[in-house]
Specification:
291 residues, alpha+beta, 4-stranded antiparallel sheet, 8 helices, 28% helix, elongated
């Protein structure tokens, strides 16, 4: 709809204060990069990047100069004459990005651009994409189902649920204080408990507001006793994730997730079946909207 490939039945699409309804796609100044990359296999790298510029009427020399600059920007300087079939998935993704940037769009939209790449490459390219967007000064609308990718790339995140906006905010704000149970679960935070349960577990703690559902943020829970101890729990699982352990505790009929930094333990901090006490920082308890 933003690109002009679909016409909305109601509402409006406004870019820089101007409605785009009725404006032909090619006149909108909006670029669109698909997940499949859609590179031309019969063209080399540079010709893929400059194809759109030449179609717009730019001279071949000017288009090639612009294309070479963009390939330098995305880290593919010297790849101009290479066949796209000789490129890795990450290199093809960069060619597709350079081609999308070539017409100098006011807005670039990316549809899960890293979805077909392996996890390690996704993490690296997500950082590179963020750096390129900032260097160019480009506004990008970026669709992903990968929460980690969204947190890395975005300045602002809109969490969508069945076509409706669930929450909008900075990555830090959404992760720190998800507004709904859906957002908390989507971010892998869990730990959404009825207010009555939290009040029973932590008598004397002053919980502001009257929200019926509260999030006990995993970042605020620590294994071991502290100022505000939770009831004794039994370890259900302990998963090693490289930089941390994700521990699942069964606590008085509820399941809690605790994130334990790996650096503090030479081995797993706990084992399945261990009985442990965990404590929580009240600053990491917040209201969430129920499902």
């Amino acid at each position: 709809t933003i690109a002009g490939l679909e016409t909305p039945r109601q509402g409006d699409v406004v870019l820089a204060g101007r409605s785009l309804l009725g404006v032909p796609p090619r006149q909108r100044g909006v670029g669109l990069m698909f997940q499949s990359f859609a590179l031309f296999p019969h063209l080399n790298v540079l010709d893929n990047v400059t194809f759109g510029l030449e179609m717009q009427g730019k001279s071949r020399r000017a288009a090639r100069l612009s294309g070479q600059e963009l390939l330098e920007l995305v880290g593919l300087g010297g790849f101009e004459a290479r066949a796209v079939s000789q490129l890795s998935g990450g290199e093809q993704q960069r060619v597709a990005l350079a081609r999308s940037l070539a017409p100098n769009p006011r807005l670039l939209m990316l549809d899960e651009p890293l979805g077909s790449l392996d996890a390690a490459l996704r993490d690296r390219l997500a950082l590179e994409l963020r750096a390129i967007f900032r260097r160019v000064g480009l506004t990008a609308l970026y669709v992903t189902h990968d929460q980690r990718e969204a947190l890395v790339v975005a300045d602002r995140i809109a969490v969508l649920r069945e076509g409706q906006v669930e929450q909008i905010g900075t990555p830090e704000a959404i992760y720190r204080a998800p507004a709904s149970e859906f957002t908390a679960t989507f971010l892998g935070l869990g730990n959404c408990l009825p207010r009555s349960v939290v009040e029973r577990w932590l008598p004397g703690l002053n919980l502001p507001g009257d929200a019926p559902l509260l999030l006990l943020h995993p970042e605020g829970i620590t294994l071991g006793e502290g100022n505000w101890n939770l009831p004794e729990g039994v370890v259900q699982d302990c998963v090693y994730l490289g930089d941390l352990y994700r521990v699942s505790l069964a606590v008085a009929g509820e399941t809690l997730t605790v994130r334990v930094p790996m650096r503090t333990f030479a081995d797993a901090p706990v084992h399945i079946g261990d009985r442990v006490i965990a404590s929580i920082d009240p600053d990491w308890i917040g209201p969430v909207r129920p499902e």
